[in-house]
Design a protein that fits this description.
By secondary structure, the protein is of the alpha+beta class. Helix content is about 15%, strand content about 35%. A hairpin with a 1-residue loop joins strand 1 and strand 2.
Length: about 130
């Protein structure tokens, strides 16, 4: 999960890995347990941050949201939330794209993405382990 601030643009402050709870097809599907989502929401709020997005990989598939990604976003509270998709080709080469889901169109729109170098930070209360 991506935790940060929405101040004009989305700025990710903390990346929080979350265990995949999918049991039937964990290589091609990903599920966040409700208790993990609630825990991260509480920790984020305590740090005066918000959940601003999600990230996941697509092994041997393009770095764009799939129909499954669209369906899951449409079922949840994803309007305006960033979704980063990393394509991993053959376990090696990668590419990254950013998307925002819009409830009005029930679709993702590609967004520009800028990656800053990580800076040293004091612990802000958000845990980074799953």
């Amino acid at each position: 999960m991506l935790v940060g601030r929405r101040e004009g643009e989305v700025r990710v402050e903390v990346v929080v890995p979350v265990a995949n709870r999918e049991r039937e097809a964990p290589r091609v599907r990903y599920e966040i347990a409700p208790e993990d989502l609630l825990r991260i929401q509480r920790e984020s709020r305590a740090s005066r941050l918000d959940i601003v997005g999600f990230y996941h990989s697509h092994p041997d598939h393009p770095a764009r949201p799939s129909e499954t990604d669209r369906r899951i976003a449409a079922e949840g509270l994803s309007d305006g939330v960033a979704h980063l998709v990393v394509s991993v080709d053959g376990g090696g080469r990668t590419s990254l794209s950013a998307w925002v889901f819009r409830d009005g169109t029930q679709a993702f729109e590609e967004e520009p993405l800028a990656v800053d170098r990580p800076r040293e930070r004091e612990e802000d209360g958000c845990r980074s382990e799953s």
